[in-house]
Write a structure and sequence with these properties.
heterodimer; A: mainly alpha; 2 domains; two-stranded antiparallel ribbon; 6 strands; about 70% helix; B: about 290 residues; mainly alpha; 12 helices; 2 strands
Chain lengths: ~350, ~290
């Protein structure tokens, strides 16, 4: 990664400020809020998949867990500050346990995907079957298929009657996304982040260099889940209801699609992919001619076939080719390497 | 006594349906290493093919055993030519592309058949054992599953085509050097896998109310059965389907159907944690 962290911070602040100012003129803040939340969810998978190489099929599980934790806690506490914290912590702890089980068992790629998928299904089936009155946590009934409506939404910390909603909720979400984005950047710049990328590239080599690959993967997995949990809590506040469909495989699928379309291994890609595709879905939802799912599927297939790296890397490549410094031709490069080798040897 | 018989039949039925659900995927994923997330949708299309054929007046058994596998196999053939063949060997990419395909097919089915439940009645009447009622169709499913396993074994082990297919999956360049076209072999194998999925969907169609999103109910079960089965195709399929089917039925009977499903999934997670290579990675090694 180029540049320094402080430069990152300045860019994030400037871009966020401009976007917060301009975007509401184009799209209503109500829609924008959910696009931001999806962006954050995309970023959570982008972090662990794009930079840690952990393909998680169950990111929706953490998203849903965050949302449910918030809803249940909000009903029990009657205010929103502690529930927000819990909604980040509970998925993180859950992911740490799950991750420890998987990574210390040295499960990789396909098996990892299947286990995360299965765990999501278990949660989905379980929550779906909790319609009866015996499924109660504190004062909150889990409500099965109908979900949990009517919980306390976000309020100013310490003042349970001052709700944050409408435009101000949009600003809260936007700023939170910027903060999360900045934290992710900081994490990736730290030695932890660089080692995580090293693990993605070559796990054996990193473990031979003395790094505890299992522990690092577990921590990264938990960090991704924490972001997803935060997104879930924000989503619960936005929708004012949580339902089991948050855990569904379709939701997990969408998150993966966002990352692929936006571009893996970039921080911005998943956010752009998420917001862009969610907005596209919103626009498509307004027409009845062609089924929505069909188009989503088509987009995914076309991207895998023709643009497997995603939008952001493709654009930045194009930028480099058109405006950046030309790279040397292949023959020149080889010659230069050979010279360097001679000089060193 | 009666209860034991009923339970036994239910268990056999659970195992048989798991075998049916997973057989197509075992070929496509187990042999060809294509993570086919559209497997459930191939089954869904098998179901729709059957129902449409029956509504047009075709005999239901012809529709289930011949028409549905052919239709779905042909769809699979098109899919292989257009999408999958560009992606062999790229595990994650096949997964994402087939996920896209699955969404595409769900959308297509919704547009054609509408987002409503359709179904046909089971063609075999039930009968009673003591005070219990057993669906006669369960036996049909068990018989189909048995013939399916025997058939797969016979084709893979006994015929030249099966030998060529297995060889090409193991080392395609060697098969090519011996004068066979891996491209063609892959195409044919994918066709067979899809036809098996279509058959499974067709056989199960009379039991479930079919909606365009029905496929999602099968996909996870199929995957955990195939992955838990491990590298050998038929032994793995049989052993893991047996294990999961029995676990599922025991817990379903003891507590509730939901707990039965959850128990199946938990058993899968535990099993994969203990035997990451699947059952046949440790036991029955080297068998087909």
């Amino acid at each position: 990664m180029q540049g320094s962290l402080s430069k990152d911070a300045i860019i994030v602040i400037i871009v966020t400020a401009i976007l917060i100012w301009i975007m509401p003129f184009i799209i209503s803040t109500y829609t924008l809020t959910v696009l931001i939340i999806y962006g954050m969810l995309g970023l959570s998978l982008g972090l662990i998949w794009g930079f840690g190489g952990i393909l998680c099929f169950g990111q929706a599980a953490f998203f849903g867990l965050g949302a449910y934790t918030y809803a249940i806690a909000a009903i029990n506490f009657g205010e929103s500050t502690i529930p927000m914290v819990l909604a980040v912590l509970v998925p993180a702890v859950f992911a740490a346990l799950l991750g420890a089980m998987m990574f210390y068992g040295r499960l990789t790629d396909v098996y990892l995907g299947v286990i995360t998928l299965v765990v999501t299904l278990i949660l989905f089936k379980f929550i779906n079957s909790t319609a009866g009155p015996q499924y109660v946590i504190g004062n909150a009934r889990l409500g099965g298929f109908n979900g949990i409506p009517g919980f306390q939404t976000l309020n100013i910390p310490g003042r349970p009657d001052d709700y944050i909603w409408g435009d101000s909720y949009f600003y809260v979400c936007a700023i939170l996304l910027a903060v999360v984005f900045f934290l992710v950047s900081a994490l990736l710049r730290s030695s932890f982040g660089r080692i995580a990328v090293g693990i993605r590239e070559n796990e054996t080599r990193m473990s031979l260099m003395g790094y505890d690959v299992r522990a690092r993967k577990t921590v990264l997995f938990a960090a991704g889940a924490a972001i997803a949990g935060l997104a879930g809590a924000l989503f619960a506040n936005w929708g004012e209801i949580v339902t089991p469909s948050l855990f569904s495989l379709g939701q997990s699928a969408e998150i993966i699609i966002w990352c692929i379309v936006g571009g893996l291994g970039t921080r911005l890609g998943p956010i752009i992919g998420a917001a862009g595709l969610a907005y596209l879905k919103f626009l498509l939802g307004q027409q009845m001619l062609i089924d929505n799912t069909l188009i989503t599927g088509l987009i995914l297939v076309l991207f895998v076939l023709f643009l497997p790296k995603g939008i952001v890397p493709a654009i930045s490549n194009m930028w480099k080719v058109s405006f950046g410094r030309r790279q040397l031709g292949r023959i020149h490069q080889q010659r230069r390497i050979r010279h360097r080798g001679r000089a060193n040897g | 006594m009666d209860l034991t018989v009923v339970l036994l039949v239910e268990m056999l039925y659970a195992v048989a349906s798991l075998i049916l659900i997973s057989a197509g995927l075992a070929v496509v994923f187990g042999m060809m290493k294509v993570i086919n997330l559209a497997h459930g949708e191939f089954m869904m299309m098998g179901g729709y093919a059957t129902i449409t054929a029956v509504n047009w007046g075709v005999n239901i058994f012809v529709a289930i055993l011949i028409i549905a596998p052919l239709v779905v196999g042909l769809i699979g053939l098109v899919v292989e030519r257009v999408v999958i063949r560009h992606l062999y060997g790229r595990l994650v990419d096949t997964m994402l592309a087939t996920w896209g395909l699955s969404l595409f097919f769900i959308g297509l089915a919704t547009m054609i058949f509408g987002n409503t439940t359709t179904g046909i009645s089971t063609p075999i009447p039930g009968f009673t054992v003591g005070t219990y009622q057993i669906s006669g169709y369960n036996f049909f499913i068990i018989v189909v599953a048995v013939f399916l396993l025997i058939g797969m074994f016979a084709v893979l082990k006994g015929t030249r085509a099966g030998l060529i297919a297995r060889g090409a999956m193991q080392k395609s360049d060697m098969a090519a050097a011996l004068g066979y076209s891996p491209d063609r072999i892959y195409m044919a194998t994918f066709f067979c896998g899809c036809a098996l999925s279509g058959l499974a969907g067709a056989v199960l169609a009379p039991l479930v109310g079919l909606v365009p999103t029905s496929g999602g109910a099968y996909i996870a079960k199929a995957f955990i059965t195939v992955i838990a089965g491990g590298p050998s195709l038929i032994a793995g399929l049989f052993s893991s389907a047996g294990l999961f089917g029995i676990v599922n039925q025991v817990f379903t009977f003891a507590i509730s159907p939901v707990i039965g499903e959850v128990a199946l999934l938990v058993a899968a997670v535990v099993l994969l944690r203990l035997l990451p290579q699947g059952i046949t990675g440790k036991i029955f090694k080297g068998k087909l």
